[in-house]
Amino acid sequence: MSLLQQLEILEDPRKDINKRHDLLDVVFLVLSGVLSGASGWKSIQDFGDDQLEWLRQHRKFENGIPRRHCIANIIKALDSDLLLQAVMSWLNENRKSQSKTILAIDGKTLRGAWRENFQHALHVVSAFDVENGVSFYQGATNRKGKEAKVVHEMLDVLTLNNTVVTLDALHCQMKTMEKVIAAKGDFMIQLKGNRQELKSAVDTVFEACNDISSKNEFLQTTKGHGREEVRKVTQLRADFDKEVSQKWPHIKTIIRVETERTLKGETAKSTRQYVSSLELNPEEAAQIIRKHWAVENNLHWVLDVVFREDSLKVSDPEGAKHLALFNRVALNIIKQHQGFKDSLAAKRRKAAWNQSFRSELLMG
Q1: What is the pLDDT of residues 186-205, one digit of tens each?
Q2: pTM of the full predicted structure?
Q3: What are the boundaries of each domain within the chain?
Q4: What pLDDT score was predicted for residue 87?
Q5: Residue 51 contacts residue 35 (beta carbons within 8 Å)
Q6: E strands of the chain, at which residues?
Q7: Which of 30, 62, 155, 175 is the most exposed place for a label (fewest CB within 10 A)?
Q8: CA dihedral 174, 180, 184, 186 (to 10 degrees)
Q9: What gap in Å lies between CA 161 and CA 253, rounded to an integer?
């Protein structure tokens, strides 16, 4: 089913007297504009004015292109849950199946999307399918400190069978682990001092294990750009005392990553810890931990550099949240294109300049 067909589930929030422009026409306009480089309401309107003939090849647009304020009002009034449901259904149909999916959940602040106080800037949380390189779920809050609630809402609707969910230390919570396990998934969560009792228990297990078997360790060395990095990953069973085990029953293993990075003759060392529901397999643990950071390099960085998301100037939180979702849909569309090899930025430019290529991306 095409994305436009999925979007037909959207309910029009307007009263009949205000329905001058068809709802799906406006949604298609926004998606096409974002895919072609538009980053705000005015640029979407400008795109529509310039590309009306092409737009009418796919939708009627009987009353032409709506003005920017009209576009903004329609998009921000959409039902967020239905919009997300339509997009998620389409993305799930287009994801390639993998033996085990790694789902990195992480948040990103839209620095330009705030009113009066930067502390209330929109914070968008994405579920990023590392293996397929697509973001297929999104939640949002106006405070970074409320990210945990958004993640819990995500986990309530995601099917996580044969999936490992990776999260940073903010989400090292019993409730988060319970929700992942209830959805038939596994977790790999970073551990820091915000869970001091658990961290002390993990430290105790590592300190008590003086003779660590080679089956519990994995050593990896990488070189490049004048830098050498050695990572030793140690994974042990979570042999906590009774009280800690009862409090954190889903933790099966604990992981320590010791990194030694040498650049220009100077060496820096660091140590990180993780807790997991996975069985012992330090090589697998090492790969999962490294792949978690793909959400920074392959999603957040791309959204900033290619989609200029940090420059988004939309103060209304609902409008900004929905535009952020369109950004992620457009990114996924470009990433899934296999017609020829080129950078994401180059394909986005081509979508702006070449109507046939834009049609190919949107219609398959």
Answers
A1: 999 999 988 999 999 999 99
A2: 0.69
A3: 3-90+322-363
A4: 75
A5: no
A6: 101-109, 123-129, 134-141, 163-167, 186-191, 217-224, 227-237, 253-263, 266-276
A7: 62
A8: -90
A9: 19
